[in-house]
Amino acid sequence: MEKIIINGGKPLHGEIEISGAKNAALAIIPAAILSQDVCVIENLPVSISDVSYMMKILKHIGAKVKLLSKNSIEIDSRHVDSYIISNDMTKHLRASYYFIGALLGRYGRAKVAMPGGCYLGTRPIDQHIKGFELLGATVSVEDNAIVDARADELIGSPVYLDVVSVGATVNILLAAVKARGLTVIENAAKEPHIVDLANFLNSMGADVRGAGTDVIKVRGVEHLHGCTYSIIPDQIEAGTYMVAAAATQGDVLIKNVIPKHLESISTKLIECGANVEEFDDAVRVSLSGRPGKCNIKTMPHPGFPTDMQPQMAVLLALADGTSIISESIWTNRFRYTEQLNRMGANIKADGQLAVVQGVEQLKGAPVRADDLRAGAAMLIAGLAAKGTTEIEDILHIDRGYEDVVQKLRGAGADIKRVFCPDANTLTSAG
Ligand code: UD1
Fold first, then answer.
1. Does ligand 1 have an atom closer than 6 angstroms to the CB of 127?
2. Does the predicted model carry a pTM greater than 0.85?
3. Alpha-carbon gap, residue 284 to 252, rounded angstroms
4. Among 340, 347, 410, 414, which residue's Cα sits nearest to residue 378?
5. Span 59-76, mean pLDDT?
6. Residue 112 phi/psi, 5° resolution?
């Protein structure tokens, strides 16, 4: 078992370099098998565990994966020979279900166990299934556990999504790029990683237009070819360090970002009294004095991202005044507030609403990372709090934050990862 230990209360100062976007990578990796060729993926956050799990699945179905450098891999999918992916492969992460769309697109057949992923409330896949069926696939869900989808031929179709879903938009895109004729996805998700996936598919010879708007048009093509593609910077990783800079009353230059993708986060930080300076591919965030309050409502892009909600709650927990957080995407995304309250925060969460009464200081405490972004919130709280914070269950943090301890140390944090053979003996793990 590993833990992260932080001696907090020190402002972050310096520079932090952002890695490639996890959620773009998780869509692009399965998309590569649509090409029956060789793709090189650059700026890939290779060392996060979600990416490792996706690479394991690729190998399991017969693709060859070669590490070219710290952040680039080659995927040779010429010899992919299976459409079956079992639960021991899929259970680790949500995005494993992108192999349903990708395998359908490649073979017209996919038998993929239900995905895992963070528990944020109910996570239905009805819109994915509706999309596959509209494209001509027959889909059954065996024992509520395995999705079996087959199609003699996929045929383009209009698909109207009843809810704006990132996952359904990705999966339908993957199935549609080689379908015969035109698919029009209406009420599509507009997140930066949807645009990145569309750009990757187009680099392989697909014809996808409109990504980034709520109508995406896909004209099916017969063949896709290999390509070299560099993934966009991670919007949520960048946002996490932006909030960490503000919550510790520090001053950090966050490099390798697309400032446009960070606008909803920057706006809220400015509302809380932070300075946010934008450069071509960097943002500098600083705050002196106590943050001010502000209200947050999570929305699909370009609204405030739900994946930044727990991190932002830490800043608001320290704010002068009372803030309201309204979570409109997930039904159960406030579990982390219990951990923050152990550190002295005063947050009352009820259903999809939380009332955050700011306190002057948080105190270090033993806490748990309930899920990936809850873990990010614990990191920020530990950095801002006076005293020592020990974070358990950090495997959740490892799913999405590349080199997090090194990056924070580089900005002056007193943070380490320790290996604990048992709860009483802590040994340094670097
Ligand atoms: C993705 C992100 C996740 C983020 C979320 C919202 C990845 C790997 N994960 O998750 O980190 O929190 O977007 O930005 O990219 N829904 C349905 N039916 C469906 C699909 C979704 O009702 O078939 C609902 C969900 O319950 C939720 C909403 O739609 O209320 C949005 O979900 P969705 O955008 O699909 O989230 P994910 O793709 O799972």
1. yes
2. yes
3. 6
4. 340
5. 97
6. -130, 130
